[in-house]
Amino acid sequence: MQKRATSSATSRLVAMSRALAHAGVTGMAQFDDPVAAELLSPQYRSILRAISLLPLPLRRVLSRATLGGLDLVPLRAAAIDAVWLRAQQQGVRQIVILGAGLDGRAWRLPHLQDVGVWEVDHPATQASKYGRVAHRRSEATLHFVPVDFAHDDLGVALAQAAHDASEPTLWIWEGVAPYLPMVAVQSTLSVVQARSAPGSRIALSYIPATGHNRLVFAALTALVARLGEPFVGLMSTAQVAELLNHAGLLLVADTDAGDWARQGSHRPPQVWVRERLAEAIVSVEFLGGQAPAPNVTK
Prior knowledge:
The chain has 298 residues and is an alpha/beta fold. 41% of the residues lie in helices and 14% in strands.
């Protein structure tokens, strides 16, 4: 979460992927995110319009040419949305989005009338984002929490923004950990631990160091480095489970794109770069005192 003057290059690509999925360009069926296009810059919106006007066969060729990459982001987003739905059914009424970037959940998720959403990110990023969605009204009680992670105290910032540490929270940490050094991951999880009441959950996406197509992953690694956002926080499932456990969080599921597709009845994509989603709870009390075996796919 380095300091920056605008939204990160990778966050813009992520929003573009969601916008393309909403427009029906990807292989993922029925993905709904009308806010994604509005969060894009004029240049990206022009590209989106041009692609959306392509005949369906050409759009399918484009989707296949990305080796499943266009499917990965909307599938991940939908999987995290499902974590929220489960948490909401258990009475969770707070969402904290860490490194929110161009996330649109505060505007696109249904049934947020009694929910508080805290978007945490660099103030410059938030200023740019707010200018694009100021006309939209969120059903949630929305808090923008400006934090320069290099200098500011996340826990203090959340407390000042009226986040209630005595009530359960869903912490969403999507597409951020691979760009962070381990010390930053640990310090952020310590804040999550300190501000999580029983019943809280975390959805943390991460990228393993192995298991990818070697050439494709090398190309992706070079690309993000060229964009100034290199991978510095690749982690194994065992490392993630250990980090979560150290922060008082119990891993209950660890899934990949194939699982996300099956959960949503979508066609599993051909994904050449692996990414995983860890879901953890803050206390076994949430499950009536029973510690479940985590659902970890290979």
